[in-house]
Structures are given as C-alpha cells and as structure tokens.
Write the structure tokens for this entry.
Amino acid sequence: MSGPILTVANLMVRYGDLVGVADVSLTVPSGSIVALLGSNGAGKTTTLNAIAGLVPPAGGTVTWQGTDITGRPAHAIVAGGLALAPEGWRLFVQQTVEQNLRLGATVIADKSRVPALLDRVFSLFPRLAERRKQRSGTLSGGERQMLATGRALMSDPKLLMLDEPSLGLAPAVVESMYETLAKLKREGLTMLLAEQAVELALEVADYAYVLQTGKTVLEGPAAQLADDRDVQRIYLGLETEGS
Ligand code: ATP
C-alpha cells in the first residue's frame, strides 16, 4: 500500500433544503479496500454519488491522485479512472449483458482494448459469459450485481466504488461476490465499499469509516472496528435492531 489515491474533505451535499451529507471526510490509500458503513439514510450513497460526479457537492473537496476534481462531470471522473457500481444496479434492462458491459467501456479511448477487458470480466464472472446474449432484465439479482460490477470494471478503473453490493442478495451469492472483491484486491485494485452488511465489509476491508446522519463519526482499522462491540452497538445498531 502507498499514499492516498482519493481524499474527501468536509463533503457536503444538499437536496434542496435537505442535507444529504453534512460533513464527510475520508482517505483511500492506493491498493486498499476502505469501507463506508452506516445504516439506511446515513449518507453512503450520497457520498459515493458526489465523488462520482452524479450529484454536485455544496461544500468540501474531492481530491483524486492529487488533483481537485470537485464538481467535475461524471464522464470526466470515470475517464480519470474512478468508477461506480451503483446501488440498485441501474442497468439497461432491454439490452443484453454484453451490450451493458460494452457501455461501461465508453470512456476507453483505445477500442482495441475492449475485448481484453470483456474477457477479464467474463473470467471474474463466468455466469455473465454464459448469459452474454441474454437481456439484462431477465437476470437474477445476483447476476445483475455481477453485471453492475462488471460494467464498472469495463472502464478499467484505478478505484472501484461499490454501493451495497450485498443488498437484496441470497447469502451464498453475497459470499461469492465478496470472494470476487477479495480477488480484485489481490490483483491490486483499490476499492471504496459502502455497506450496511457491516461484518462482511469489515472482513474484506483494511480500514473503515462509520457514517451517521451524514457525518463521519468514527474511523479505524477494520479489524479493530470488527472487534469493538460497543462501536457496533452505538453506531451501527447491530444489537438493537428489531428491539
Ligand atoms: P441507503 O442505504 O438507503 O442508500 P445511505 O446511507 O446510502 O442509505 P443516502 O441514500 O445517501 O443514505 O441518504 C442520505 C440522506 O439524503 C437521507 O436523509 C435521504 O433521505 C436523503 N436523500 C437521498 N437521496 C435524496 C434525493 N434524491 N432527494 C432528497 N433527499 C435524498
């Protein structure tokens, strides 16, 4: 691991009068997995969307490889090597698996690289290779998550942001998705991972930040947070759910 590839300082995002994110700061070192934890509505999606240029920040800065990219349009940010696999997948359901993947490579200037990128995604997710001519709307939830992740990888990112890759998936499918994330990490990919599935995220991550009502309230090495039951109870509500 080396220095930071991404730094977010005092990010603020407004939705009209509502504050989506009040004050989020985080650092992602190159080669690491950083988890962004927090319950429903804590501001994880808003943070990732603001980094990706999908919503405009009202304050704070996003620094990517030493350059201030705050407020740049999404296409410029993807072209710079920062890709998002969004929550809810946002696929083109009438298009085939392969067409969706090719759309992910829109920012690749040298089109001769596309077949190799496609092969890489198909070897990571053999199920997508089997389904390559199938319309995305007919895929299972797990396959859609694979496709959203694969599509983000088609831009050959230096940093992959994943918004709740476990959401709505069966445990076995989640496990296989996380095995793939671990494999990508071994290949050197840097990741920023938003999750409500805290234990899972802390298993794969190196470092984690906890968001609460739009603010980073806690941070630490993943192993340390995983061991701290108080942290989980107070900030993540793990032991209070349903009570
Ligand atoms: P989730 O797991 O539900 O996605 P989250 O931690 O990602 O939760 P956000 O979706 O970022 O949280 O939401 C942060 C806050 O911003 C919440 O109060 C939410 O209601 C609000 N919010 C999010 N999107 C919008 C929007 N498009 N318009 C208005 N308010 C929004």
Q: What stands out?
A: The domain at 1-81+159-165+189-243 is CATH 3.40.50.300 (Rossmann fold). The chain is about 35% helix and 25% strand.
